[in-house]
C-alpha cells in the first residue's frame, strides 16, 4: 500500500509523492488551500470561475485549443475541480510524459492570460452551468442545506456564485483573488504512479521562482443565530429532495472514524438501515444515504433522500426514527463489522489507482498539514467500538437541533418544523 513522501521546494511549495512502480502512468496534481470559502460578497464564484480561466490560454499556449492539443498529443486526461476549501488541477498520462504534464500545469498556474474577451465569453458558460445546477434538484439540495446551516457567509454561498457577481467580474477580480491565495504556502504539488527520476529538479525549475508572500487565513465560520430550522426551495416536481441533519465535527476531530462508521451504518450501501427501512421496506425513496460534511473548523452529519412528494412526511418521520434508534442502542456486533468492512474496502479500492492515492494524500496535506498513512487509517477504523459509535451518535443527535432542507412543491415551512420538532 502506498507510502507518501513529502519534500519542499526552495520557496516553500510542498511536494507529495506516492510511488506505484507497478503501473505505467502518473497522476500529476497541483492542489491549493483555496476555494469559495476565501471569497468576498463581491467576488462570489471567482474561485470556480478562475479554475475555468486557467484552461483558456497562456503566453506560450495562447488558446484553450493549444493547451488541449498538447495534452491530447500525449494521450492524457486533464481537468480541475473547485470546492469550498480546496481547488485542484491535474493531468493523468503515461509515465514517460510526466514532465510535459507538469510543464502544462505550471504554465497554466503562472502564465494564464485571463484575457478580457475570453472572460466575457466564459461568463455565458458559467451562467449556463448555474442553470443546469438549478435544474438538477438532487444536486441543488446540497446548496439549500448549506445556506440553511451557514447563512450569508462563504460556507453558505453557492460555489458557482451568483448571476450578478459573475456578470460583473473583471480581470482585476481574478488577479486580486489569485494574488491573495495562490501563494507558495497554500500550494501542494502531488504525483502518484510510476514517478521516475528528476522530479524535484523539474518542479524546482518550473515553480521554484514563485516568490514567497504572506497570505491571509479563511474567515472563521460563524454559526448563525437560531431561526427556522427548515429551508424550502419551492419547485414544481414529481419528487421531493431533502437533506435532514445536525451540526457535526470538523475534519480533524478525534472521533472522525467512529462518525464514519456511524454514517455507514445509517446510510452507506444497499444494506444500510436507511436504505432498508426507507426504500426497501416502505418504498418511500429512490435514493437515500447518510454522510459527514466536514470542513476544517465545522461539519454536519446529514441524511439525504429523493422521495415521493405525496409521502414526504412519512419519509422524514422514518428517517427521524432511524436517527433516534442509532443513538438509543449500541450497534450490534455483526452490523458494526459489516460497516467496518464496507469502509475499509471502499478506501482500499480508492487507492488502487494513482489518481485516487495521490488525491487522498493531497487532501490530507492541504487541509490538515499532515498525511495519515493508509495502514494507520485502517488501524484507526479497526479500533472503533460499538460504544464509540453510540457515544458519537448521542453527542451529535440527542437533544440537538435538527435542520431540514427541501426542494419540491412546498411553500409552508411550518408543516415541516412541526415534523422535526415532534
Description:
The longest helix has 19 residues, at 116-134. α9 (256-267) crosses α15. A hairpin with a 5-residue loop joins β1 and β2. The strands form two sheets. The chain has a six-stranded mixed sheet with strand order 1-2-6-3-5-4, with helices on both faces. The chain is built from 16 helices and eleven strands. The protein has two domains: 4-207, 2-Layer Sandwich (Cytochrome Bc1 Complex, Chain A, domain 1); 230-421, 2-Layer Sandwich (Cytochrome Bc1 Complex, Chain A, domain 1). The chain has helices at 46-53, 64-73, 98-111, 116-134, 137-150, 163-168, 171-181, 199-207, 256-267, 273-281, 312-328, 333-350, 354-368, 374-383, 386-397, 413-421, and strands at 4-8, 14-19, 25-32, 77-82, 87-94, 187-193, 230-234, 239-247, 285-294, 299-308, 403-408. The protein has 422 residues and is an alpha+beta fold. The mean pLDDT is 96.
Amino acid at each position: 500500500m502506498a507510502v507518501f513522501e513529502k519534500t519542499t521546494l526552495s520557496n516553500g511549495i510542498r511536494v507529495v509523492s506516492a510511488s506505484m512502480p507497478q503501473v505505467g502512468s502518473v497522476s500529476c496534481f497541483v492542489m491549493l488551500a483555496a476555494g469559495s470559502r476565501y471569497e468576498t460578497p463581491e467576488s462570489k464564484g471567482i474561485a470556480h470561475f478562475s479554475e475555468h480561466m486557467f484552461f483558456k490560454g497562456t503566453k506560450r499556449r495562447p488558446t484553450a485549443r493549444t493547451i488541449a492539443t498538447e495534452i491530447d498529443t500525449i494521450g492524457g486526461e486533464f481537468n480541475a475541480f473547485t470546492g469550498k476549501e480546496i481547488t485542484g488541477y491535474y493531468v493523468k498520462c503515461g509515465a514517460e510524459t510526466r514532465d510535459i504534464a507538469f510543464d502544462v500545469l505550471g504554465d497554466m498556474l503562472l502564465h494564464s492570460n485571463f484575457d478580457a474577451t475570453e472572460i466575457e465569453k466564459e461568463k455565458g458558460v458559467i451562467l449556463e452551468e448555474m442553470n443546469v445546477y438549478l435544474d438538477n434538484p438532487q444536486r441543488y439540495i446540497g446548496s439549500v442545506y448549506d445556506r440553511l446551516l451557514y447563512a450569508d457567509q462563504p460556507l453558505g454561498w453557492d460555489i458557482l456564485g451568483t448571476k450578478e457577481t459573475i456578470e460583473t467580474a473583471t480581470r482585476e477580480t481574478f488577479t486580486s483573488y489569485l494574488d491573495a491565495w495562490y501563494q507558495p504556502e497554500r500550494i501542494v504539488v502531488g504525483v502518484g504512479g510510476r514517478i521516475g527520476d528528476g522530479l524535484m529538479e523539474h518542479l524546482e525549475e518550473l515553480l521554484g521562482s514563485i516568490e514567497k508572500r504572506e497570505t491571509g487565513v479563511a474567515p472563521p465560520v460563524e454559526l448563525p443565530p437560531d431561526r427556522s430550522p427548515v429551508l424550502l426551495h419551492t419547485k414544481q416536481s414529481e419528487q421531493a429532495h431533502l437533506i435532514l441533519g445536525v451540526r457535526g465535527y470538523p475534519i480533524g476531530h478525534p472521533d472522525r472514524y467512529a462518525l464514519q462508521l456511524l454514517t455507514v451504518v445509517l446510510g452507506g450501501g444497499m444494506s444500510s438501515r436507511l436504505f432498508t427501512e426507507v426504500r426497501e421496506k416502505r418504498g418511500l425513496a429512490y435514493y437515500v444515504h447518510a454522510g459527514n460534511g466536514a470542513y476544517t473548523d465545522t461539519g454536519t452529519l446529514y441524511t439525504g433522500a429523493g422521495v415521493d412528494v405525496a409521502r414526504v412526511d412519512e419519509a422524514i418521520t422514518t428517517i427521524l426514527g432511524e436517527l433516534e434508534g442509532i443513538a438509543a442502542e449500541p450497534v450490534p456486533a455483526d452490523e458494526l463489522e459489516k460497516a467496518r468492512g464496507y469502509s475499509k474496502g471502499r478506501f482500499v479500492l480508492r487507492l488502487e489507482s494513482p489518481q485516487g492515492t495521490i488525491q487522498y494524500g493531497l487532501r490530507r496535506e492541504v487541509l490538515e498539514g499532515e498525511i495519515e498513512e493508509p495502514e494507520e487509517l485502517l488501524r484507526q477504523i479497526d479500533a472503533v467500538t460499538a460504544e464509540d459509535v453510540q457515544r458519537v451518535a448521542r453527542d451529535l443527535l440527542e437533544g440537538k437541533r435538527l435542520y431540514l432542507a427541501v426542494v419540491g412543491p412546498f411553500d409552508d415551512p411550518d408543516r415541516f418544523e412541526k415534523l422535526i420538532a415532534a
